[in-house]
Every structure is written in C-alpha cells, then in structure tokens.
Design goal:
Blueprint (H helix, E strand, L loop, with lengths): L17 H16 L4 E2 L5 E3 H7 L5 H4 L4 E3 L5 E4 L4 H10 L2 H4 L4 E10 L11 E10 L4 H18 L4 E7 L6 H13 L5 H9 L1 H5 L4 H6 L12 H16 L5 E2 L11 E9 L7 E7 L3 H4 L7 E7 H10 L12 E5 L4 H13 L4 E3 L6 H11 L3 E5 L1 H5 L2 E6 L5 E5 L3 H8 L1
Helix pairs in contact: 1-6, 1-13, 6-11
The structure holds histidyl-adenosine monophosphate.
C-alpha cells in the first residue's frame, strides 16, 4: 500500500467493477443519442458565481457543499457541483441557441463534486449522466426526458424505481404560494435554522425529513392549489403524455428539489433499496435560469442521473449486467513463438477481436493461468515445433478441445467462431 489513500468521501473505480460504470453510462446515454441529443463536455470548474446565481445563494449546494478556490491570478472558481448551469453557460457562450432550431438538445457525462457528509450513496466525488433540452417550452419535451430516463433504467434491468412528479409553478403563481406558505410557517414552532430557511426558501421546509417538522406541516397550503391556469394545463399535458407512453409515475406535491432554478415540471427517480440516499436521479424545467446567468429567455428542461447510485440500485435488486469478457482470445507463446503470436494478436485486434497475450517470459503453466484469468473463450498456444509446422494450437477454453490451425488462417477461423 502507498502512503496515500483516496480522499475522504471518494473511491476509486477499479476493474472488473469499473466495467459496470461504463455499462451504466452507456445505457443512460444510449436513448439520448437516439433522440437527437448531442454530446457536450465542459470544464470541471467554473466561475463560482455561475453556481451562486444559477443553483441559488440559499441552497445547501452553494452555501455548504461547493469546493471553491482562488487561483494565483485571483479568479474565484468552484469545482462543479452539478452540470445544468455549466451546460447552459456553454450553450450560450457558443450561441447554440442562435445557430439552428430550438431546442438545443445536449447530453453529458462526468464527475461532480459536493462537500457533503459522506455515507453510502453520498460521495464528495460522484458521476452523473445528464441531458438538457434548451430553449423550448413544450410539455412533450418534459415528457420525452422522463420517458428516456425510464427507458434507460429499464434497459439496465432496474425495476424497483419510482418516478415522483410535481409542478413548482412559474413566476406568476409561485410567489403567491410562497407568501401563503411563509404565513403558515411563521405560525409553527420551528428551530432557528428552519425559521431562517422558511424566510429564504420556504418550499425547502416542506422537504424536511424530520417527523416533528412533518407533523406540523399537516394542513400547510399546497402549491397545487395555487398553480395558475397555464401551469395547470402544462402539467396536465406532461402527465397525459407520460401516461400514454405507459410510464408509471406518482404525483408528489411535496417534491421540492435542492436547486433553486426549477419552475413547473420537477421529478425525481427514487429507488427503495438504497436507504436514505434514495434519489437515483432528478431534474425538471428551469425556464428562468438563462436570464439568471445573463442570457436571453430560454425555457429549458433536463435531468441528471447519478451513476454511483444507479450501480448501487442494480446491486440492491441483484441485477447482473451482461458485461462481455474483456478478452476473447489469449495467446500463450512458448520458446521462440512470441513474435509470431504477438503479430497474430495485433492482427486480431485490428480485426476487432478482443485479444491479449502473456507477458513476462512465463512458462506454459503460468501463461495458461493468465489465459484462464482473462476470461478468454479461446487460447492460441504455440511453441517452436508448432511454428516449424506452420500452425498454432487453438484451445477452446470452455470445452477444453484443442487442435492445430494454420498460422495464416488463425484470424479468419477465430472471427467465424466468435
Ligand atoms: P441533483 O438531484 O442534485 O440534480 O443530482 C442528480 C443525481 O446525482 C442525484 O439524484 C444523485 O443520484 C446524484 N448525486 C447527487 N449528489 C450526489 C452525491 N453526493 N453522491 C452521489 N450521487 C449524488 C442535479 O444535479 C441537476 N443538475 C439535475 C438537472 C439537470 N436538472 C435539470 N437538468
């Protein structure tokens, strides 16, 4: 072991386990790539104000969880705690919203950083795959995103997840509700921090998990009763489209997300096998974010699914992903056969066959152990005598059958067998 360890709240992804993460990222991005979303990549850090203004000055993410730093040049940066603000910033900077038709549909995959108290499913470095559809107000777009996430989870074999859906209203109706809720909260017996939260971000109080708070919230005004007609109609259309697609969801009028930019549609994917960190993904509409970061009005919607928690959810359900062995053919070279087999392995790789070879001058026993460990379906074994006859021994690692194949035919024979 070295003197160093992975920092608190982080962990390394190492083979073979890491293959699951690649498979999950592929499964989540697959439906997006088939639906007009283009890949976007942004820096791992941004101007701290992008998140302060975008995600919200009163959110835990901004006040407690950001990794901030000042550069030697005096710039104030933050490691990105989420992707939406960055992706929108990049789209605006590249004028994507002016380049072609709207919406601009983008997907991304990467590392995010939050200084949170680490526990199972909650890390200081985690990864998300996300999607943002920028510049269109259309219930079908909200529905599309929810349906695509559902499709991604199902393609992985996940079954025990639920979709929670809510509408947070817009700039017309939410302020009226906010005031009504604040009036109600002021009459409760709450601790100092919660009283403060009620003044800054009263909707977050609804999300308080403590029983003594929840007890007092019975009878609180609900946003549903304050939604304006436009928000109500919009939400009904989203619900109808998801229902028509056969995607089950639950209306959750207490669903408030931990980021301030949401308007109207909000949703969360929760998995019941994960304990307290049950949200595997979440998202919603953020019609005002562009203006909040200095852009034009660009109503948008998106989500991010947590890769770490999706892997945990798969494990909780006992789903084994169908991950093919990394190596299909393993070469074992004896005597002077190394250059010939090395050449064959290169040819196999060029022909698209996953191939590897034993390194380090091992004898037959050691090299065959390598072949077994690799999970390869076939081994090609050759020594001086085989090469003198122009053949290699092809061994089927499942049946144990073995026989000579002419060196010139090896690649073709293996391609047909695999
Ligand atoms: P979020 O709900 O903060 O939303 O994060 C999305 C997902 O990232 C969570 O559901 C969870 O799976 C994962 N996640 C968040 N924090 C952690 C953590 N500390 N450890 C492990 N996993 C974590 C957003 O980030 C929004 N940007 C989503 C969005 C996109 N909204 C609109 N567009």
């Amino acid at each position: 072991m070295s003197t160093f360890k992975a920092p608190k709240g982080t962990y390394d992804l190492i083979p073979p386990y890491s293959a699951k993460y690649l498979a999950v990222r592929d499964a989540i991005s697959g439906p997006l790539r088939l639906s007009g979303y283009g890949y976007v990549e942004t820096p791992g850090f941004e101007d701290v104000d992008l998140f302060a203004r975008g995600v919200g000055e009163s959110t835990d993410i901004v006040t407690k969880e950001m990794y901030t730093l000042t550069t030697k040049g005096g710039a104030n940066l933050a490691l990105r705690p989420e992707g939406t603000a960055s992706v929108l910033r990049a789209a605006l900077e590249a004028n994507l919203h002016k380049a072609g038709g709207l919406p601009v549909k983008l997907w991304y995959s990467g590392s995010y950083y939050r200084y949170e108290r680490p526990q199972k499913g909650r890390y200081r470095h985690f990864s998300q795959v996300g999607a943002e559809a920028i510049g269109a107000e259309d219930p079908a777009l909200d529905a599309e995103l929810i349906i695509l996430a559902d499709q991604a989870y199902r393609s992985l074999g996940l079954r025990n997840f639920r979709i929670l859906l809510n509408s947070l209203g817009d700039k017309e109706c939410r302020p009226v509700y906010r005031e009504a809720l604040q009036g109600f909260l002021r009459g409760l017996d709450l601790d100092e921090e919660t009283v403060r939260r009620a003044e800054i971000n009263p909707l977050r109080v609804l999300d308080d998990k403590r029983a003594e708070v929840q007890k007092q919230l019975v009878g609180a005004p609900m946003l549903r009763d304050y939604l304006c007609d436009a928000c109500k109609a919009y939400h009904e259309e989203v619900r109808a489209l998801i229902t028509a697609a056969g995607v089950a969801f639950e209306d959750d009028e207490k669903l408030v997300r931990g980021l301030d930019y949401y308007t109207r549609t909000t949703f969360e994917f929760v998995h019941d096998g994960l304990g307290s960190q049950s949200a595997v993904g979440g998202g919603g509409r953020y019609d005002g974010l562009s203006e909040m970061i200095g852009g034009p009005a660009l109503p948008s919607v998106g989500w991010a699914l947590g890769v770490d928690r999706t892997v945990l959810a798969l494990e909780a359900e006992g789903v084994e992903l169908d991950i093919p062995p990394t190596t299909s053919v393993f070469a074992v070279a004896l005597g002077e056969a190394k250059p010939v087999l090395f050449g064959l392995v290169t040819e196999l790789r060029q022909a698209g066959v996953a191939a590897d070879i034993s390194y380090g001058g091992k004898g037959l026993k050691g090299a065959m152990k390598d072949a077994n460990r690799s999970g390869a379906r076939f081994a090609i074994v050759a020594g001086d005598r085989d090469l003198a006859e122009g053949v290699v021994q092809l061994k089927d690692m499942e049946s144990g059958e073995q026989g000579p194949v002419a060196v010139a035919d090896v690649v073709e024979v293996l391609r047909t067998k695999l």
